[in-house]
Design goal:
This protein is an all-alpha fold and 505 residues long. Helices cover 68% and strands 0% of the residues.
Length: 505
């Protein structure tokens, strides 16, 4: 009877059998003592196993983590077999999803060192070319990069009212750069990977991922913006499906910068990317690309902080004209529209850009804009800022520009000759006076009859203006004499209304 009762009771599983079953479920021949070597001492094996399951379920969806065996992330790639390296790669990415506060160097030092060492191992493993980027690996890598990189920047406390960094401001460096740099390096290695399945990767590097990357261009750390520039350029080159979206998103950033905030730190880097993108545009240019030139690049000349990105902006504009010379006249009209009035430094930049554009301008396009252009150049020749006047004079030393002027001298010389004469009579700077004399001499050699005709016209205008001034002087003298005679001659007439008021009082 007792034996029958004992048979009905559940049998106790021996310790060896339970450990064997756990070992078979994990699919790993490593003992639990090795697997959880990096966890806190004193916790039980069951609690550690639950922790690993919770973390893996949070980081990886069930559909992606299915079939991925759990491997201790603290192991080295050299210590596991080739079949386990893929699982170890994902486990290490899982470990690096923890973000630490790097502003306090004494906080979580051991954990930060472990994470940094793991990131370095991941970069080395990817650069070795032995990793196979399956969908779980791509999902894990993109999620790790997103957790570490995508963040909200603190408010800017710049004292300057000019948007973005200026030449006088010191750049601000992110305290977490020691980790961020390695994450950026890993992301770049992933995008550049030769055997990467683009169709599979574009599912995770999608529009939302690209928008978050573009938001990071507002970082105040120039090192981060430089990394982002390289990564976005590689994405644009490798993921052709995302190219229209990237162009549209960058246009929206520029629109917001020009017409709303005038504050952004990464305009120069974005323009540097687009300099190479524009050079790769196919001919004839699409209307979308021309709209980008007219609605985004040309208005970028307006903000006060144009000096920060003017070099990259000029390169982009010149690339467009190199693709289609018929765009030169519309670009010069845009420059004249946004021509600075009170900023001499911006004016110097505009004249330098104008010279580069005119070097690529055909005769037909030049004739469309030569009248408003040289009216503006006449003002620059007369500028009281000697650098602006000097730079405007030096345009005449350019052979291509001089050739354009020579063929259209009948229109251009009357527009600028009065400015040259005014300089010889009134300008305070000796260098500008010397340049003016050289240009007048060159014009005389070019067309002496035209110069003499311009000189006579100026003299006639001066004589007419002198005669008009003399007539005004005589008229004012007569008015003053009449007023003095009336005041000396007798009674002063009082208005009726005022007299009535005085009587009533």
């Amino acid at each position: 009877m007792i034996k029958q009762i004992l048979r009905k009771l559940p049998k106790k599983v021996p310790k060896s059998e339970s450990s064997d079953s756990a070992r078979s479920e994990s699919g790993n021949t490593t003992s639990f003592g090795n697997v959880f070597q990096c966890t806190n001492v004193g916790s039980t094996i069951s609690s550690k196993l639950n922790v690993v399951k919770r973390v893996s379920s949070v980081v990886f969806p069930a559909s992606l983590s299915a079939g991925v065996e759990a491997v201790d992330p603290c192991l080295s790639f050299k210590d596991v077999s080739n079949t386990q390296k893929q699982s170890l790669f994902i486990s290490k990415l899982n470990l690096c999803c923890k973000v630490y506060d790097m502003s306090d160097p004494d906080k979580n030092t051991a954990e930060q060192d472990l994470k940094r060492q793991t990131l370095v191992e991941l970069v080395d493993f990817v650069s070795s070319g032995t990793v196979k980027f399956t969908e779980p690996a791509i999902a894990a890598l993109c999620k790790m990069c997103a957790i570490n990189l995508f963040r909200v920047f603190p408010p800017k406390f710049r004292t300057s009212t000019v948007g973005g960094e200026t030449e006088d401001e010191e750049p601000m460096f992110d305290p977490a750069w020691s980790h961020l740099q390695i994450v950026y390096d890993l992301l770049l290695q992933f995008i550049n990977y030769n055997s990467l399945d683009v169709k599979l990767a574009k599912v995770h590097i999608d529009n939302a991922f690209i928008l978050k990357l573009l938001d990071l261009f507002d970082s105040e750390d120039p090192r981060e913006r430089d990394c982002l520039k390289t990564i976005l350029h590689r994405i644009y080159g490798k993921f052709m499906v995302h190219r229209p979206f990237i162009r549209k998103s960058v246009s929206n950033i520029i629109y917001r910068f020009v017409f709303e905030t005038e504050r952004h730190n990464g305009i120069a880097e974005l323009l540097e990317i687009f300099g190479s993108v524009i050079s790769g545009f196919a001919l004839p240019l699409k209307e979308e690309h021309k709209v980008f030139l007219w609605k985004a690049l040309i208005p970028l000349h307006k903000p006060k902080s144009v000096g920060i990105y003017h070099q990259q902006l000029t390169y982009c504009v010149v690339q467009f004209i190199d693709k289609d010379q018929k765009l030169a006249s519309s670009v010069i009209k845009g420059l004249l529209k946004y021509w600075p009035v009170t900023s001499s430094q911006k004016e110097l930049m505009f004249i330098s850009e104008l010279e580069e554009i005119l070097e690529m301008t055909s005769m037909a396009e030049f004739q469309k804009i030569m009248v408003p252009l040289f009216r503006r150049m006449g003002c620059c020749l007369n500028s009281s800022h000697y650098q602006v006047a000097e730079r405007a004079h030096l345009l005449w030393n350019n052979e291509h520009i001089l050739n354009l002027i020579t063929h259209n001298r009948q229109v251009i010389l009357p527009l600028v000759f009065s400015a040259l004469v005014h300089n010889t009579q009134n300008h305070w700077n000796q260098a500008v006076l010397n340049l003016t004399q050289n240009i007048k001499k060159m014009l005389s050699q070019m067309d002496e009859d035209l110069v003499l005709a311009c000189q006579r016209k100026i003299e006639e205008e001066d004589s007419r203006s002198s005669a008009a001034a003399e007539r005004r002087r005589i008229t004012w003298e007569r008015l003053e004499a009449a007023a003095s005679d009336q005041s000396v001659g007798g009674d002063i007439l009082v208005p009726v209304k005022s007299a009535t008021c005085s009587v009533a009082c």
